[in-house]
């Protein structure tokens, strides 16, 4: 098995780094600190990190066609105007639920937003996966979810992969771009005890899945056909949360990490916890899309 080692970059979360997303048009890395209620933009070329505070916990941020960011928060889906530093709350399909928040989301191949929620206790199946159309109408795709996490699509856009972290599984669905519907649910990866729980996820052009293993200190590369780990990127701290491919050729694997419970870590692990990391695994990632609404 190939093993790569990641390089620590200077941006660091105050509490829980998450939501890594490459903004190709700006050549910048979007990431969030969920518990600190912050959205960040990191420019690797200049080694500069900018931060926007938002009024509630934020699980993900992705670019839109208009050049601002679409957010998934505790208060629903919101839009962040980076120029005016203004946030506008748009829709909350879980407004009736007080013990959930949006945790993971991505624009699909056709510009719709797929937004997943989680329960505050991380166990109860109160969360869902929602499809947010460009007109901001919402449709529930999955229910009985504890912690919505990794989302990505195959290079041919025919398959969607999804993680509900406590299940320790990566599941696949046939994806219908015309309707946004999912069918033929099946398990393609099972993460054994002792490797951490599957968290964020991205995909490369060869169809392999790169899965953050929270508590396992790595991003693991899985072949979804065989269900086997074939490569890994090691981090010097256990709380690896979310990977994404970035850089001019989408050949750099960036990932976020958490500082939660860092007082329980060895000194070197505690020093690394919360930082952004980068590695060069020798493969190109699939280009992401922007929200079309």
TrEMBL record:
Residues 17-258 form the SMP-30/Gluconolactonase/LRE-like region domain. The keyword Iron does not apply. Its cofactor is Zn(2+). Pfam families: SGL. A divalent metal cation binds at residues 18, 149, 199. Binds 1 divalent metal cation per subunit. Keywords: Metal-binding, Zinc. It comes from the Bacteria. The active site is at 199 (proton donor/acceptor). Gene3D superfamilies: TolB, C-terminal domain. Substrate binds at residues 101, 103, 121. The keyword DNA repair does not apply. One of its GO terms (molecular function) is gluconolactonase activity. One of its GO terms (biological process) is L-ascorbic acid biosynthetic process. Belongs to the SMP-30/CGR1 family. This is SMP-30/gluconolactonase/LRE family protein. It comes from Ruficoccus amylovorans.
């Amino acid at each position: 098995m190939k093993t790569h080692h990641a390089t620590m970059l200077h941006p660091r979360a105050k509490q829980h780094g998450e939501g890594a997303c490459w903004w190709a048009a700006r050549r910048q890395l979007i990431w969030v600190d969920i518990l600190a209620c912050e959205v960040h933009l990191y420019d690797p070329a200049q080694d500069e990190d900018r931060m926007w505070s938002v009024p509630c916990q934020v699980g993900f941020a992705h670019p839109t066609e208009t050049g601002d960011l679409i957010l998934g928060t505790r208060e629903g889906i919101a839009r962040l105007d980076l120029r005016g530093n203004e946030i506008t709350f748009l829709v909350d399909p879980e407004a009736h639920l007080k013990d959930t928040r949006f945790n993971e989301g991505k624009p699909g191949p056709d510009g719709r937003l797929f937004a997943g929620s989680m329960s505050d206790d991380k166990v109860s199946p109160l969360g869902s996966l929602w499809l947010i159309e460009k007109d901001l109408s919402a449709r529930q795709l999955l229910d009985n979810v504890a912690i919505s996490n990794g989302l990505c699509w195959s290079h041919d856009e025919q398959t969607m992969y999804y993680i509900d972290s406590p299940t320790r599984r990566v599941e696949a669905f046939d994806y219908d771009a015309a309707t946004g519907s999912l069918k033929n649910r099946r398990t393609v990866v099972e993460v054994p005890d002792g490797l951490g729980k599957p968290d964020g996820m991205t995909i490369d052009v060869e169809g392999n899945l790169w899965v953050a293993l929270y508590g396992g200190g790595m991003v693991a590369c899985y072949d979804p056909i065989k269900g086997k780990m074939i490569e890994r990127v090691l981090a010097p701290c256990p709380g690896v949360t979310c990977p994404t491919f970035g850089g001019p050729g989408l050949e750099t694997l960036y990932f976020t990490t958490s500082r939660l419970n860092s007082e329980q870590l060895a000194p070197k692990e505690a020093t690394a916890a919360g930082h952004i990391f980068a590695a060069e695994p020798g493969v190109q990632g699939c280009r992401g899309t922007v929200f079309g609404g």
